[in-house]
Amino acid sequence: MSSSRLPVLPLHHPLILLPTARLTIPISRALADNLLAILDDSDAGQPVLATIPIPAPVDVNSPHAVSLEVPTAANGLPIHGTAARVVRLVRPRTLASPGSPRQPYLLSLHGLARIRLTQPLELDPATFDSLPEHTVTYPAVDLTPSRETVEAFKDAALRLLDRLAKDSVPTQRKDDWLKVASMVEDISDQRAAWMADVLVAAITGQYADKLAFLAATDVEDRLRRATELFIKQTSISEVSKKIASAVDESLSRQQKEYFLRQQLAAIQRELHSLHNTAPGLPGGGSELDDDEQADADDLADLRKSIEALDAGSEERKVGVREWRRLKRIPQGSVENGVIRSYLEWLTSIPWPSASSSQATGQDAIKDPGFLAKARAQLDSDHYGLDQIKRRLIEYLAVVRLRAMADAASAAQTPSSLNDRPQQQNLIKASQEWSGANHALVPLSAENAVLRPSSAPLEPTKAPSPPKKKGVKGPILLFVGPPGTGKTSLGQSIAKALDRPFQRISLGGVRDEAEIRGHRRTYVASGPGMIVQALRKAGRADPVILLDEIDKVGHSNFHGDPAAALLEVLDPEQNHSFNDHYINVPIDLSQVLFICTSNTLETISAPLLDRCEVVELSGYTYDEKMHIARRFLLPKQIQVNGLSESQLTLTDDALLHIATLYTREAGVRSLERAIGAVVRFKAVEWAEHLDGVVGEENDQKEWRGIVEEHELEKILGVPRWDGEEREREEKRGVVYGLVVTGMGEGGILPVESTAVPGIGRLKLTGSLGDVIKESGEIALSWVKTHAFDLGITAGRGIDPLKVPDSIDIHLHLPAGAQKKDGPSAGIAMTCAFVSLLSGATVPKDIAMTGEITLRGRVTPVGGIRMKVLGAHRAQIRKVILPWANRKDVEHDVAPEIRREMQFFFVRTIDEALEAAFGQGTLGWRREAVLLESRL
Ligand SMILES: Nc1ncnc2c1ncn2[C@@H]1O[C@H](COP(=O)(O)OP(=O)(O)OP(=O)(O)O)[C@@H](O)[C@H]1O
């Protein structure tokens, strides 16, 4: 190992000079002077220096700290370096590289060989520029490395060079790398270490790696380190290439989209200006043209609405988050549209906390004359319905009490007892309105509830601690046939409360998402009906009418809409209703829900359980006349552009329309028919004004009154005319009473006939199991009592076998409609008796009642509707079960009761007596007595 004394030049981090490499560094004047002195002293021309790389002090706390694996002297400074020849020392004066004032000289060095200091280097700032001389040793001449090491080195070097060639953009550099690669391929094993020096010096690598490489005096070690460095460098450049191309791709797509949009806008602007300046075309643009401006305005509005949401609220947080997302996504993209429409929905919901407009509704409710005004409102919108109006006033009184109690607890008044006298006054007021026998239970303001009138009264409780705000009484459910005013009662309640009214039609809703909305992941998703109604209402406390809840679909693979409704209607849950689209809990506790339905049968039990049922069963002709005269006719006259002084309908004409053209429980068809008459007259009036000449060549006459005989000309042939005449008193035919699925009462013929057969009973007319069983019971009863009724000559004889063998066919017309229930029992019994005995039932008698095998008649439902239906059908005698007597007394209007005759029967015997008339049937009396003794 040879040694020599060389002036030492420390190279501070990150400078490093490897053998074979060249390095140019700026140096100070003092150093340059020292160098010049050495230059002058040296007789061999270019002097040689020992360059020692000095690493920066390592911050051990830094997460990026790299430990240096190089041998150092006792003072921690490296002892390895490179002997370098001074190639050039200049003081540049060109403008391009003026040099820094502190280091005005440039020193170029050429690395020659590795060296090692024999003594540690002193890094005294005073000696920085002094180039102190040190003894250095040169490591032993390199041995030839092993084959495998060289192969691995070449392999890694070639891969790196290939990568570098691929990545270099100017073709010149690419060619240079390829040339080096071919040199590497051809290099001999002895020269591999030299090649390693050349390559490591040429590539960019980490300082620590290069330092370790410089300190590797053993050739095997040096090559291994070079191989590792190349592999590391190759993978770094591969990964960065990948990242760069990914970034590039997305950037270029965005740029492309941006440029295309700009171009499109420019083209549109050009076309627009061309269009506007084209000769003959009207100038000035349409409001549809200025898309960009409108768009910017919309965005600004959206931003304002998000800012207007309550600070700290959930909706605001979501709004802000989505707004930030919106800003990141390019305009015009699908995602952008989705987020925008979501934000529009989110901000358009009247969030309870943000709504200051609620005061309006509260004002109306706080008004001491609220109940009187509500009553006046109901009266001015609806005729009759006294009982129902009473119930509604009770309901409104409770709503008011609750609202006031909520307000009081919100204001943190120390004791709700202070309000008690006032509340009791209120209850008293509502009692005055709702009559003596209503069932408003005067509990404390917080827990006052409306009880069905049959429910027992609860004792007055002491005021309980204030409950959660927004907990409400039961939901009102109006049940009744179409057109009986369910929807319009809901509207009146909204008017009385001075709240917006929204109607949600649930008929045919099969999908839970229609109520709750679709999740945002669905294409074209949107919020459900409840949120839509809230947005339309524009306030957090509207009256929402859920129309036709009996027609809501039940659980299926689209979810369970009825279950979603339950959540909406349940006061315990609806303060945080979750719409799938909005996905922020919405407080529905201030919304007043009212439901309507035609029948109670198809409503799910839990839903029904949350509702307070209010039945509207239909109107009598008398009531219809009043409704038509006071409400429907004036409304139609106004809608059709006439005035009440111009047109009137006589009472007879109105009655004629109600009885012969419409026969329904409600008044909707009546309103439609009146509308048709008014429209007809409106045309006549218009023609009269225009001076149109009639068929007889004279100007059309105008008569402002419509009489009964004119109706056929206007409305066509009456629909129900002659039905009574068509009804016949015939053997085997009787009339039963029914209630349709729409909740409407009416009569239904029960027809029976005998056909040759073997004593069987055939039942037709879309009958359900229960009604079929009723038929069997009726026939069995008749067979058992055939002798007593004088049908057979002796006991034990089957009237279907003797004298002739027959089958009985019983049919209930309107075969397409499903019929079920036990209430046709007595009608079928009478039909069989009539068929077998030959006696007939008069055609003005109709009947309903369930029978038992022992001949008892048991009560049935829907009495009021059935009686009204019978009355409309001109039936004047009705046979009903004895147990239904109270229903007639309570529910049927006195004027109807006066016009009709009711037979209340306990047994089939009594029913037959009432139907056929006394003495018509050939009773064997002893048998009857025997029966009654049993
Ligand atoms: N008692 C009444 N007084 C005045 N108008 C009435 C009365 N009952 C019903 N009407 C009128 O009859 C029309 C139909 O009523 P509405 O739409 O409320 O019926 P509905 O019971 O809701 O029917 P549906 O079950 O088909 O929804 C309305 O124009 C309503 O104003």
From TrEMBL:
Stated name of the protein: Lon protease homolog
Start and end residues of each Lon proteolytic domain: 728-918
Residues binding ATP, per UniProt: G480, P481, P482, G483, T484, G485, K486, T487
Catalytic site positions: S823, K866
Leading EC class: hydrolase
Species the sequence originates in: Hydnomerulius pinastri MD-312
InterPro entries tied to this protein: AAA+_ATPase, ATPase_AAA_core, Lon_bac/euk-typ, Lon_lid, Lon_proteolytic, Lon_Prtase, Lon_prtase_N, P-loop_NTPase
The keyword Cytoplasm belongs to this UniProt entry's keyword annotation: no
